[in-house]
Specification:
Elements: E1 16-18, H1 19-26, H2 30-38, E2 46-48, E3 51-55, H3 56-63
Antiparallel strand pairs: 1-3, 2-3
């Protein structure tokens, strides 16, 4: 019996991104991303079992120079 595997999804197609993916999308380090979250410039979208996720729309808003809602 073969194992089921999910198809590979690129960062560009994801709605929610991990901390590493979010930092990669913005072209910054994960430490800088954590600092932006701490200052309230980027909001965490969802935390599941301790896993922090970011919404793509929030990251794009930040990248375009917007402020946190």
């Amino acid at each position: 019996m073969s194992e089921f595997t999910f198809p590979s999804v690129s960062i560009q197609d994801k709605i929610l991104l991990t901390r590493h993916e979010a930092a990669q999308l913005l072209g910054i380090s994960w430490r800088m991303l954590d600092e932006l979250v701490r200052r309230g410039e980027i909001r965490i979208r969802r935390a599941i079992r301790g896993r922090v996720l970011f919404s793509r729309s929030e990251l794009l808003r930040f990248a375009e120079g917007g402020t946190s809602r």
